[in-house]
Amino acid sequence: MRDLAPGEVVAGRFTVQRFLARGGMGGVYAATDGDSGNAVALKILEEVEDGPLGRRRFFNEAAMCSTLDHPNVVRVLDFGADGPRAWIAMELLEGETLHRYLKRNGRLPVEVALACAARIAEGLGAAHAKGFVHRDLKPSNIFVVGEDAGTPVLKLLDFGLAKRTDRDIDLTVTGTFLGSPRYMSPEQIKGQEIGPPSDVYNVGLVLWRMVVGKDLFDRPEASAILVAHVTEKPPRLGEVAPDLASHRDLEWLLRTCLAKPPDERFTDMRELVEAMDIVRRRANGEAVGIPERTLRGERPVFPTVSRDQRPWLVAAAVMVGLAGVSVVGVALVLLGFLLGRV
Ligand SMILES: Nc1ncnc2c1ncn2[C@@H]1O[C@H](COP(=O)(O)OP(=O)(O)O)[C@@H](O)[C@H]1O
Ligand SMILES: [Mg+2]
């Protein structure tokens, strides 16, 4: 596809000012909206590039995103078609993607990363409340528009793979593989039902990237990454970032986001944001526990236990362990006895 040149007019209305980025479906440009006089970001899809299904997906993104009004989600202003060219006009953001920001800054301090992840979760929560999931959350689809007291201010972009949870149509089932292997949930890889927990998994992946400084399952082969998402437990934090080895609350939070079965993750963004807030406060020395309802199923339980209960828990664990050992010992003696008699 030919890039649009500065001065070119789209839909008789938008004058292209400059090229911003080349995405998966077309170009993104800074442009002036002749109707309002405002500067906008114009995302363009040329039909030749992706066929009619691509166009449906493109308008799907525009239609869903334009229903959102949230400080952490890019604002869609208008959308339409101009011959074979489809366009989405958005608020023009100044800054860089979180992907580039992290490349420049490396790891983020845990508290900063938790604050960022909470804002991302809130933006996604707004989408879930409108009945759709993002499905393509990754650092290159998150934009850093500035900093507030050292914490990046973030906006979610690119609802191009978003899917309504109340309808059956899935515009991504085309035989082509959409999404980035590094940022896909197990159920997405397996082609199963996708709901808000899939986005929870991706928030876990982004948080991992921010605190560890590397993607979870950072491998050269896409197939190895996909297999790992489906089958491999994430390493312990201390193995990949020794200074985080003692941060057990953060480990619990990440593990709960990154559980393979969707129903073992935080059930929704509200629960996740609440957990992040509690982890942050506990890191600051506040004696708060994790609410019981956050601790269903197989989730690790250590953060619920307040400090004064811990010695009892340890004693109980030791006793259970000893009991187990003696049961096994007795069984072995019996077995030896029986075998000896045969
Ligand atoms: N509203 C915007 N303001 C400024 N830059 C944007 C805006 N929207 C997208 N971009 C830039 O364009 C890139 C591609 O946009 P994105 O919506 O992610 O499209 P794609 O589906 O092609 O990945 C982004 O990574 C970002 O750099
Ligand atoms: Mg993108």
Q: Which short descriptors sum up this protein?
A:
alpha+beta; Transferase(Phosphotransferase), domain 1; 2 domains; 3-stranded antiparallel beta sheet; 10 helices; globular; binds adenosine-5'-diphosphate
Characterize this entry briefly.
With 342 residues, this protein is an alpha+beta fold. It is 41% helix and 17% strand.
Instruction: Report the principal-axis shape.
Output: globular
Classified in CATH, the superfamily of the largest domain is: Transferase(Phosphotransferase) domain 1
Tell me which ligands are bound.
adenosine-5'-diphosphate, magnesium ion
Summarize the biggest pleated sheet: 6 strands, antiparallel
- Predict the CATH topology of the largest domain: Transferase(Phosphotransferase), domain 1
- Strand tally is 11
- Average pLDDT, rounded to a whole number, is 83
User: Structural class of the secondary structure composition?
Assistant: alpha+beta
Query: Please, how many domains?
Result: 2
The CATH architecture classification of the largest domain is Orthogonal Bundle
